[in-house]
TrEMBL record:
PROSITE patterns: NUDIX, NUDIX_BOX
Cited InterPro entries: NUDIX_hydrolase-like_dom_sf, NUDIX_hydrolase_CS, NUDIX_hydrolase_dom
Keyword Magnesium: no
Source domain of life: Bacteria
Keyword Membrane set for record: no
Pfam family, one: NUDIX
Protein name: NUDIX hydrolase
Native source species: Vagococcus elongatus
PANTHER family in the cross-refs: ADP-RIBOSE PYROPHOSPHATASE, DIHYDRONEOPTERIN TRIPHOSPHATE DIPHOSPHATASE
Domain spans labelled Nudix hydrolase: 41-179
UniProt similarity note: Belongs to the Nudix hydrolase family.
Entry GO MF terms: hydrolase activity
Keywords from the named record: Hydrolase
Amino acid sequence: MDLKEQLNNYIPFNHQEAQDKRIILSCLEDYPQIFFRENLLAHMTASAWVVNRNKDKVLLAYHNLYDSWSWLGGHADGEENLLNVALREVSEESGLQRLTPVLEDIYSLEVLTVDGHMKRGAYISSHLHLNITYLIEADETASLSIKPDENSGVKWFALDDAVAASTERWFQENVYKKLNEKLEILGK
């Protein structure tokens, strides 16, 4: 099933997701190269809410650019299967190799603003990440490693502690709390 079909079938969890779903579908239709960073206005990204087997802990990375603990994920860079992107990014950013999607479907979606910043000596203008989030399970006893050009720590947190560990207020209130709420509903 392609991404447009997945999005059309996706039932938004809240008003944020309903609005963001409309924007993502519109951008997929209207903007060329949306799966590539070369689209300077907006491009597709994938993130993962990585949980342990008991689903009472989540894996976060200390993201150097944002100076905050955050979920794992990254740019599609031409790959249209965003679950594969999320799995690749988790492996790259944490060193974990054995990852299992809890769901094959979209877990969450967000339109994220990215402020202008320097990366590898070049200025990157402010833009949007059209983000699809997947729920992925990993072994919390497996060895972790950092990706020095992106993060300086990778660590498991209790669910509420993961929200508190972020210094990005918007993510705390609008993304990470939502992901935990959805996890609680999934467990019922």
